[in-house]
Design goal:
Elements: H1 3-6, H2 12-30, H3 36-39, E1 40-48, E2 52-55, H4 57-64, E3 73-86, E4 89-103, E5 108-124, E6 127-137
Parallel strand pairs: 1-6
Antiparallel strand pairs: 1-2, 3-4, 4-5, 5-6
């Protein structure tokens, strides 16, 4: 998400959740999940409509990795980000659209998909972390 939009969110908690969610989307977009231990709890759960229930950072990384051919073009757009928090718990919702494409030199072969993320957050050790990722493909 563009930094100028992140600054729109009032309150430290919403801004922090927005930043963390943006890192999650960047990890999915780039297919590089090194950031997961920083943004997710060690016992993070995920329910993803395309791959089912996942438990723990390693399984989340393995199952969310892009299964298709290498794509030289990969973009993501975040829409309608909303976050709320109360004490040590938070909830966030956003719609995301991804595009991946293979450019064979003559044509671009795109694959578009998107859906709704609803993520749960917990405040641990002085920072917000994702404790449950939910994604439904639209």
């Amino acid at each position: 998400m563009d930094r100028r939009y992140k600054s729109f969110f009032l309150g430290e908690n919403r801004r922090a959740m927005c930043e963390i969610f943006s890192k999650l989307i960047e990890a999915i977009r780039s297919d590089c999940y090194d950031v997961l231990p920083e943004i997710c709890t060690t016992d993070c759960q995920a329910d993803v409509s395309t791959v089912g229930h996942l438990s723990g950072i390693n399984e989340i990384q393995d199952r969310l990795s892009w299964p298709g051919p290498h794509t030289g073009i990969s973009k993501a757009s975040i829409w309608n980000f909303v976050a709320r928090s109360d004490k040590q718990k938070g909830q966030q919702l956003a719609y995301v659209q991804f595009i991946r494409a293979v450019d064979d030199g003559e044509e671009i072969h795109p694959f578009l998909y998107g859906g709704e993320f609803i993520n749960s957050f917990v405040f641990v050790d002085g920072q917000w972390k994702i404790s449950h990722i939910r994604f439904d493909l639209c």
